[in-house]
Amino acid sequence: QVQLVESGGGLVQPGGSLRLSCQASGMIFSINAMGWYRQAPGKQRELVATISSVGITNYAGFVKGRFTISRDNVKNTVDLQMNSLSSDDTAVYYCNAEVRQVMEMRYSEYWGQGTQVTVSS
Q1: CA dihedral sign, ordered 85, 89, 91, 92
Q2: Pairing of the two strands 57-59 and 115-119
Q3: What's the rounded Cα separation, in Å, for the pair 101 and 28?
Q4: Cα separation of the two ends of the chain
Q5: Residue 107 carries which DSSP code?
Q6: Which of 14, 19, 29 is nearest to 121 (CA)?
Q7: Using an 8 Å Cβ cutoff, are 51 and 37 in contact?
Q8: Which of 100, 116, 120, 117 is nearest to 108 (CA)?
Q9: Per-residue confidence (pLDDT) for residue 100, from 0 to 100
Q10: Whole-number Å distance between alpha carbons of 114 and 70
């Protein structure tokens, strides 16, 4: 089985920064895309950023240059550096990865348990 474990969430003041990290573990053969999604109370889960296995990134429009996604293919980690945070960024942030397990021929999608990010003064 594959597990994704997020860390780095918390409370930050408007204008501040946070760095989220996600560690994938288990019987991993390879990982395709990795990404971050978020879900605010009463809203649907939405894409924040994704990064391919070769480092091609994609960001949601609301990121506006404030966030940077990166990954380490050796450590099977994906990070999200978030700067200039506002109250609109308050949400539970979820890690996502397309993983091919050892002895399997296809990729499956996995989600972390989520980490809370609260932006408030």
Answers
A1: negative
A2: unpaired
A3: 4
A4: 40
A5: -
A6: 14
A7: no
A8: 100
A9: 97
A10: 18
Yes or no: say if 36 and 78 are a contact pair by the CB < 8 Å rule.
Answer: yes
Residue listed under structure tokens 């942030």: 93
pLDDT (tens digit per residue) in 34-43: 999 999 999 9
**Coil, strand or helix at 75:** coil
Buried b (16+ CB within 10 A) or exposed e, 38-50: beeeeeeeeebbb
Confidence (pLDDT) at 64: 83
Q: How many CB atoms lie within 10 A of CB 14?
A: 13
In this structure, are residues 35 and 78 in contact, taking their beta carbons and an 8 Å threshold?
yes
- Full DSSP string of 90-104: -EEEEEEEEEEETT-
**Which string of DSSP letters, residue by residue, matches 13-47?**
-TT--EEEEEEEEESEEEEEEEEEEEE-TTS--EE
